[in-house]
Design goal:
This protein has one helix spanning 2-43; strands at 67-69, 75-79, 86-87, 101-103, 108-112, 125-127, 132-135, 156-157. The longest helix is centred in the N-terminal third of the chain and has 42 residues, at 2-43. The chain is an alpha/beta fold. A 4-stranded mixed sheet has the order 1-2-4-6, with no helix packed on it. Strands 3-5-7-8 form a 4-stranded parallel sheet, with no helix packed on it. It is globular and about 65 Å long. It has one domain (2-157): Alpha-Beta Horseshoe (Leucine-rich repeat, LRR (right-handed beta-alpha superhelix)), CATH 3.80.10.10. It binds 2-acetamido-2-deoxy-beta-D-glucopyranose. 2-acetamido-2-deoxy-beta-D-glucopyranose binds next to loops.
């Protein structure tokens, strides 16, 4: 009996430990997504209130307008085309390591396209067209597959900021 009890105690300990570790590992990940989107929001002017549902007090950003998440409540899509936004894109967007789609066409966004975005290995498509970006057009990482038209109509893009 004693070895059995010891065995099930061990099994229970392992289960508890696994639960604690996975909570610790998963919780900050969704929090990072919130931090990245909050950094984006805080840098932007949003006269039309497109970002007004972006409440950092929530446990995840999956109910925010213009945001899509996967089953693990990680951000996969930012859909902010034609929202009358101005200001820069936050470098913190480079933390959104599940991001697949970044659509920001047709605003008045300015400053560089953050070089941190080249680390977004899941990025499938992005559209920066019809804004006022400047500086280098990223070409490495996921940007190898993003077409030139996604950068069109940014008169200062490719020139020094
Ligand atoms: C865009 O925002 C400006 C204020 O910055 C406002 O005057 C204008 O009406 C807005 N345009 C649209 C299409 O909502």
């Amino acid at each position: 009996m004693v070895p059995m009890a010891g065995g099930s105690l061990l099994a229970l300990s392992v289960i508890v430990l696994a639960a604690v570790v996975s909570t610790l590992l998963l919780a900050p990940v969704a929090a990072n997504d919130i931090d990245a989107l909050s950094a984006l929001k805080s840098g932007l002017k949003d006269p039309n209130g497109a970002l007004k549902t972006w409440d950092p007090q929530l446990v995840d950003p999956c109910t925010w307008f213009h945001i899509t998440c996967d089953d693990h409540k990680r951000v996969t899509c930012i859909d902010l085309g034609r929202q009358n936004l101005s200001g820069p894109l936050a470098p913190e967007l480079g933390q959104l390591d599940r991001l697949q789609y970044l659509e920001v066409y047709g605003n008045r966004l300015s400053g560089p396209i953050p070089k941190e975005l080249v680390g977004l290995s899941n990025l499938k498509d992005a559209d920066f067209s019809n804004n006022d970006f400047c500086g280098p057009i990223p070409t490495s990482g996921p940007f190898r597959h993003i077409p030139r038209r996604s950068f069109a109509n940014n008169p200062r893009l490719g020139k020094k900021c």
